[in-house]
Amino acid sequence: MDSVLASSLSGCNVMTTDGAELGTVENVTMDPSTGALEHLRLDPNDRATSGFDRAEDGQLLVPAHRVEAKKDYLLVSPPRQ
Fold first, then answer.
1. Is beta strand 74-76 parallel, antiparallel or unpaired with respect to 67-70?
2. What is d(CA 79, CA 71) in angstroms, rounded to the nearest whole number?
3. CA-CA-CA-CA torsion for 42, 14, 30, 10, nearest 10 degrees?
4. How far apart are CA 60 and CA 25, in angstroms?
């Protein structure tokens, strides 16, 4: 994926490459020592979203390395099950 600013990801709808809608990006986490993105924190939609970890507040944690493209949706590779 081309470089994008992390701030431009907030509010993006997220879908897996196999078509499952996950939710909306609420925040991103990064490693403060390297600046590398670690996770996208999603406000999940009402559908079942298994395979990704959840934060204490219920947000989905999608590893940043799963991001594949930013188009109409932010596309991520699905979790391995």
1. antiparallel
2. 20
3. -80
4. 9
Tallying the residues shown for the chain, one arrives at 81
- Block mean pLDDT (10 aa), the chain, length 81: 60 90 92 90 80 90 90 86 56
One-letter amino acid at 23 equals: G
Which tokens is 35 given?
């600046």
On whether the CB atoms of residues 1 and 12 are closer than 8 A, the answer is no
Distance CA 43, CA 2 (A): 24
Q: What is the dihedral of CA 26, 28, 15, 9, to 10 degrees?
A: 80
What's at 72, amino acid-wise?
Answer: D
The pTM of this model reads 0.81
Asked if 22 and 16 count as a contact pair (C-beta separation under 8 A), the reply is yes
